[in-house]
Specification:
Elements (H helix, E strand, L loop, with lengths): L2 H13 L7 H15 L4 H10 L3 H14 L28 H14 L5 E7 L19 E7 L8 E5 L13 H16 L3 H23 L13 H18 L7 H12 L6 H11 L6 H20 L9 E5 L19 E4 L2 H10 L4 E2 L2 E4 L5 E5 L6 H14 L4 E4 L5 H10 L2 E5 L10 H5 L6 E4 L13 H5 L6 E5 L5 H15 L13 H5 L24 H8 L6 H6 E5 L2 E3 L5
Parallel strand pairs: 1-4, 4-5, 7-14, 8-9, 8-10, 10-11, 11-12
Antiparallel strand pairs: 1-2, 2-3, 6-7, 12-13
Length: 581
């Protein structure tokens, strides 16, 4: 490190002497440090980027837990909300950094080997320190940190992606600003005519293509999960090592390069030739021999083709995206590399580790197991102004999950809402927003909630700069939550809800929900009718027990792209263990 950087790092160290700094100050300090450390050490930079995620939310979680331990406040539930505050709390600046890094690596090794964690962190931008207008959203470079869990011998690695640049004028394409504009426009379009809504749909599709092709480009392959057939991942890396050892033994090929190229192989079906070429040039920036580069590129493409040609089982385990709140507005699940894969979101590495420890005894092969799926509850149309939605959803619940309990067509009081939420293993809310207007936030946050929470209301899981909705249910003690990033229409949401639950939740119903006459059902007919000219009974009931995979599949039944893109999952991967029904 040169003298100028040494002086800068000393100044940063002095700034750290402020204990319990404001979240935004701590976040920017950590990102600034990562920026200057990255060229010397990936792992040190990754540690600082990890620390920069959700510092304010982590502080709140710790303070709430400590408040519960005080004499004047009793927890509603005897089960501890957080097993330890040490994992979530901001690290003391006087602590030994190398020890903290060792702890971080140990946590990654502890988590299920099936998981791949991909952290997306914005680059430090000094303009953020002086911008007072909270309607301005900058598109910055992004640090992609990749964590392969359950392995001690494979360190995380880091790649930084530049912002998209306009090829004509050379300026930055402000995709974050456009995404926020689409969300605002979507809310207005729902109250306007069909033509305006179609315009929003077109803009949303366009921005997903821009994220793929102009921003992340070849590096979207890093968002890929591990193959369920673990031998495929091993085979790819083995073939890469053998290739370089036999063909180009003089090249310096690090474990990071092998890891990156393995992801390129896995994503080659989605990548253009020029994108594969750029990834190879990133790994070997000093190679000038075009024939050598061409040989490496051809080998990568042939290796990817070989996996597909031999009919390999390319089904993958879940990817858990660790998203900065400024990037949470994007429907990452819709980009080509992820749209058919199981994906969940969390705000920080600390929160996913804490969730893992809270539910560790119930996690099998990377999924939290739900045994009592017939012990469900629902709240439908609590504000009494969505009558057609109420009829459609009650038709579904009465037919598909008749043992579930709940309310419909009236506003439950706080105690009734709380009882339904905390006594069930799966809880579905079908109404406006997230239901936060019906129940005390403080009461929820003093409770250990075991339910998988499904919030099918407008913007039910959105994260804005000053938005409490997701925080109400908390990312640190609810195992998994499904909901919407922005406003959606009730009919499209009902189609998605019933298709998802019909695929995921086993039922004793004689006929599959997919055979319901959706035209009649959408009209809110009181009686469920089935399509004609089908052999409806006697067909084997096949379910998708994995929540994330069922959700991804169910989105294909929805007509509006905006509704498909809005629906996301947060928290742990969840799987139903089916009984003999």
């Amino acid at each position: 490190m040169d003298k100028g950087n040494e002086e800068l790092m000393q100044l940063l160290k002095e700034l750290e002497n402020v204990h319990y700094p404001p979240g935004c100050q701590f976040q920017r300090l950590q990102r600034y440090k990562a920026l200057h450390i990255q060229k010397d050490s990936d792992i040190d930079a990754i540690y600082n980027l990890v620390q920069s995620h959700s510092p304010g939310l982590r502080n709140k979680a710790v303070l709430r837990y400590e408040k519960l331990l005080s004499a004047d406040v009793e927890p509603i539930c005897k089960i501890p909300l957080i097993s330890t505050t040490e994992e979530i709390a901001l690290k003391c600046p006087t602590a030994e950094v190398n020890e903290n890094i060792r702890i971080m690596l140990r946590h990654i090794a502890e988590m299920p080997k099936e998981w791949t964690l991909v952290q997306l962190t914005p680059y430090y931008n000094p303009l953020d320190d002086i911008t007072e207008d909270n309607t301005i959203f900058k598109t910055n470079p992004i640090h992609i940190s990749v964590f392969n869990c359950g392995q001690l011998d494979e360190e995380p690695f880091l790649v930084t992606v530049n912002p998209p640049i306009d090829s004509v004028n050379g300026s930055c394409i402000e995709l974050v600003q456009e995404m926020m504009s689409i969300i605002r426009g979507n809310k207005e379009a729902l109250m306007s005519h069909k033509k305006k809504r179609q315009s929003i749909e077109d803009r949303l599709k366009a921005i997903i293509k821009d994220v793929q092709n102009l921003w992340f480009k070849e590096w979207r392959c890093l968002l890929s999960g591990k193959y369920i057939d673990a031998s495929l991942d091993e085979e790819i890396k083995l073939e890469l090592r053998n290739f370089f050892r036999m063909e180009f033994s003089k090249l310096e090929v690090t474990s990071k390069i092998i890891s990156i190229l393995a992801y390129v192989v896995k994503g080659s079906v989605h990548l253009k030739l020029i994108e594969i070429k750029r990834a190879v040039q990133y790994c070997f920036p000093h190679i000038e021999d075009k024939n050598l580069l061409r040989s490496i590129i051809q080998f990568i493409r042939s290796l990817g083709d070989k996996l597909i040609a031999k009919g390999a089982n390319t089904k993958k385990y879940p990817v858990i995206l660790i998203l900065d709140d400024s990037l949470d507005c994007f429907p990452w699940e819709m980009i080509d590399i992820l749209q058919d894969e199981p994906v969940s979101r969390v705000p920080s590495l600390q929160f996913i580790y804490t969730l893992f420890k809270e539910h560790e005894k119930d996690i099998v092969n990377g999924h939290k197991i739900v045994l009592n799926y017939d012990k469900g509850a629902y709240i439908v149309n609590p504000d009494t102004d969505l009558k057609n939605m109420e009829i459609r959803m009650m038709n579904f619940f009465n037919y598909w999950t008749p043992n579930w309990i709940g309310t419909s067509g009236y506003q439950p009081d706080s105690d009734e809402f709380f009882e339904l939420l905390t006594s069930s293993d799966i809880f579905s809310y079908n109404g406006h927003g997230s239901g936060s207007h019906l129940l005390s936030m403080d009461k929820i946050q003093r409770t250990h909630i075991k339910s998988v929470v499904l919030l099918f209301g407008c913007g039910s899981t959105k994260i804005n700069r000053m938005d409490p909705q997701v925080e109400m249910y908390g990312p640190y003690h609810i195992p998994c939550m499904v909901g919407m990033l922005w406003e959606v229409t009730d009919l499209d949401t009902d189609v998605l809800t019933t298709e998802f639950m019909g695929q995921w939740i086993p039922s004793k119903a004689p006929i599959k929900w997919k055979y319901v006459d959706k035209t009649e059902w959408s009209k809110a007919e009181e009686i469920v009718k089935f399509v004609k000219d089908k052999k409806l009974t006697g067909e084997e009931m096949n379910y998708e027990p994995e929540l994330l995979r069922a959700l991804s599949s169910a989105k294909k039944a929805v007509s509006f792209y905006g509704t498909r893109a809005a629906c996301v999952a947060r928290g742990l991967p969840v799987k139903i263990q089916e009984k003999n029904i």
